[in-house]
Amino acid sequence: MDYVDVDLDSITRRGTLRVLTDFNSVNYFVVKDIAVGYQYDLTAEYAKHLGLDVELIVSNDYEKNIELIASGKADIIATSLIADTINEHRISFTEPYGNSRIVLVQRINENGELIESGGLDHLAEDTVSVLANSFYQTAIEQINDTSSFDDILIDPIEFYDVEQLIQLVAESEIKYTFALENIARANKWYYSNIDVRTPVSPDYDLSWGVRPNAVNLKSDIDNWLSEFKETQRFKQIFRKYVIDPREHRSAVQKTSADTYCSDFEDIIKQYSEEGRFDWMLISAIVYQESHFNPDAKSWAGACGLMQLMPETAARFGVDDISHPEQNIQAGIRFLNWLDQRLVSYVPDSNERTKFALAAYNIGLGHVMDAMRLAEKQGLKPDVWQSNVEVALLMKANAQFYSDPVVKHGYCRGSETINYVRNVVERYANYKRELGR
Fold first, then answer.
1. Rounded mean pLDDT of the chain?
2. What is the pTM of this model?
3. Catalytic residue, candidates 163, 181, 289, 389
4. What mean pLDDT comes out for the span 139-160?
5. Average pLDDT in the 315-326 region?
6. Is 273 labeled as catalytic in the residue annotation?
7. pLDDT of residue 397
8. Which residues of 11-41 are buried (b: 16+ CB within 10 A; e: fewer)?
9. What is the per-residue pLDDT for 87?
10. Bridge partner list, 42
């Protein structure tokens, strides 16, 4: 393979570091239009070390990533690369940034008991679905060569990613899959009916990849990672995306009127008058976001009663994000801003409320993606239920989040669908029981 002659000096003169990463619940994703992720944060720190801006390229296609690296259109593959399981000479592997092992993903029942027999020595009785042409296949071949039990039978699946296979396990479509433990644990926070405790491999080093001829870039990354891994900032990033549990307030919650709290009613009523949204709808949002706790803080950094991201709070004039009045005022203004952005696309005000709620939860970019995707799929782009919500679910599938009409990539739309349903139902109950 031919490689462009681009090393650290050329990258520095260019002024940008071109980073390839992949969409998943650990490495890179977007929350309320704010980019986050383990690899996103790590590469941002490395670019800061170089004094460069990051040019992020998102791709889950490994072969395409190799081509982009070789051509100089990217400088670093910042994904979970395992040198031990990849017979790969087309890239150079950097100093490891971490490690993980491969685990078995299987279902559990309501009592937390394994639905299938589960042990590795029983897997030969079934097949395990894994990504086709992935390092998982290579790793399992190595395990089969060294294990004392019968060979594990592999069913290679194309056109899916690891997280989709985990979802299929949770939905009883397949029995088993394999995943890196860090990705499996992140998905355990979404799917309570999966078990990820059974390791099937030793710990593997996780590295970035660079061009083989980018020797100075590799050397600089190696030296920087060796030092950065000892810092508090690295430990903070690691805990945020790999260790700490994530609360998902968009999951199914109570929607009854007894969830209401009157402590902030006067403030909510006051600022609700600035837009078209009923104060009881705002109250239903506040419960969904924080359970009326002004000190609530999410794993992603959203704060306060209406769970504002710091960037959003600053945009709408908040000096103290935890101050109840400022938080409510900015949250309502943000919701009204979203409503105004949507008015030309969704003229019906009742429908538009659902779109605004979805955008408040997951970000306007993802909602606009889903509207374009819905239209392309023959669905109604201005109707939420059974139309745009269906398209939003499609954005968890590489076939659809890679579509040219999709600008903001992967998202896990099921949470947002639950969010909208919860808030709308709670609002209806508030109006029936509390209307005055």
1. 89
2. 0.81
3. 289
4. 73
5. 92
6. no
7. 83
8. bbeeeebbbbbbbbbbbbbbbbbebbbbbbb
9. 62
10. none
Q: Given this model, what pLDDT does residue 156 score?
A: 85
Contact predicate 60/398, CB 8 Å: yes
CB 153 within 8 A of CB 128: yes
> Quick one: pLDDT at residue 247?
64
Residue 429 or residue 253, greater confidence: 429
Which long-range contacts (C-beta less than 8 Å, at least 24 apart) are formed by 391-395?
392/358, 392/362, 392/366, 392/367, 392/416, 392/417, 393/417, 394/370, 395/366, 395/369, 395/370
What does each C-alpha distance from 368 to 15, 28, 410 come to in angstroms? 31, 20, 13
The Cα 86–Cα 134 span in angstroms is 9
- How far from the centroid of its chain's Cα atoms is residue 358's Cα? 16
Q: Is the pLDDT of residue 164 over 70?
A: yes
Residue 117: pLDDT band with limits 50, 70, 90? low
Beta-sheet pairing, 16-21 with 53-58: parallel
Q: Which two tokens stand for residue 94?
A: 């950097």
